[in-house]
Amino acid sequence: MSWISKVRVNTHAVLKRAQHIQGQKIPKKQWQAAWLLKAVTCIDLTTLAGDDTPSNVHRLCLKAIQPVRHDLLRAVDMHNKGVTTAAVCVYPSRVADAVKSLKAANSSLPVASVATGFPAGQTPLETRLQEVRLAVADGAAEIDIVINRTLAITGEWEALYDEIREFREACGDAHMKTILAIGELGTFTNVYKASLVAMMAGSDFIKTSTGKESVNATYPVAIVMVRAIRDYFLCTGHKVGFKPAGGIRTAQESLVWLSLIKEELGNDWLCPLLFRLGASSLLADIERQIYHHVTGQYAAYHELPMA
């Protein structure tokens, strides 16, 4: 608590740093293609819609196993390198469908499930804990929990810590990603404090947003969160992952995110174990850019398999 009470964030410096990262030149030609394939391997391919069915979850799983068309990968000599997305992310009720589809395809890709009253987190604690347990029982290897924003906004950091500890226990061996819902926390200082509390409580990852808020993954907030990760690592020696999610739609944006992680946290974090991109429509744009790199022209969307 003494560490958390001392936290102050310099807003002007954060905004200036974010502006610098966005203004950097991005790689071109084969270097861009290489970075885009790196981005693909860090994507949590996600479907969180009210009309999700076993059939579109099945299609999503097949897309996760073969995210880029085989002939395109062959053209850049990456067809035998096992390029897949990092995971498939679904609602708890669809976890069993995803696990079944991946098993049938003989794939070891992990299934991630959102839980704890996603996206608002406004259900009773016991209900949220039970949701985590059921998702794990159905085969989820990763759980994306949402924090109780009320506790963060009102500064009840110890109560928030206790809740996240309970979620950590309910997850068992499953990886736990903690969603801070930064669009609803109000200030950078709150974001930093919530990041610290989530890491102290045993989170394997901290994640920006649910994708359902009005403000999702933004670069200034990411700077604050990754600086919290860096400070926590320097203090404890423990590496915690980072996952931006919500509103990441273009290949260009994915390159900026990779650049931000490389500069702020270093190459160790540039792998699926410590960095994920939460996205549903991003993969389609990355595949179009790789198609353009290989053929010199842009594909119509109907030419590429649906994500």
From TrEMBL:
InterPro entries: Aldolase_TIM, DeoC, DeoC/FbaB/LacD_aldolase. Keywords: Cytoplasm, Lyase, Nucleus, Schiff base. One of its GO terms (biological process) is deoxyribose phosphate catabolic process. It catalyses: 2-deoxy-D-ribose 5-phosphate = D-glyceraldehyde 3-phosphate + acetaldehyde. The active site is at 207 (schiff-base intermediate with acetaldehyde), 243 (proton donor/acceptor). GO terms for cellular component: cytoplasm; nucleus. It is found in: Cytoplasmic granule; Nucleus. Its EC number is 4.1.2.4. It comes from the Eukaryota. One of its GO terms (molecular function) is deoxyribose-phosphate aldolase activity. Pathway: Carbohydrate degradation; 2-deoxy-D-ribose 1-phosphate degradation; D-glyceraldehyde 3-phosphate and acetaldehyde from 2-deoxy-alpha-D-ribose 1-phosphate: step 2/2. Catalyzes a reversible aldol reaction between acetaldehyde and D-glyceraldehyde 3-phosphate to generate 2-deoxy-D-ribose 5-phosphate. Participates in stress granule (SG) assembly. May allow ATP production from extracellular deoxyinosine in conditions of energy deprivation. Interacts with YBX1. Belongs to the DeoC/FbaB aldolase family. DeoC type 2 subfamily. This is Deoxyribose-phosphate aldolase. The gene is dera.
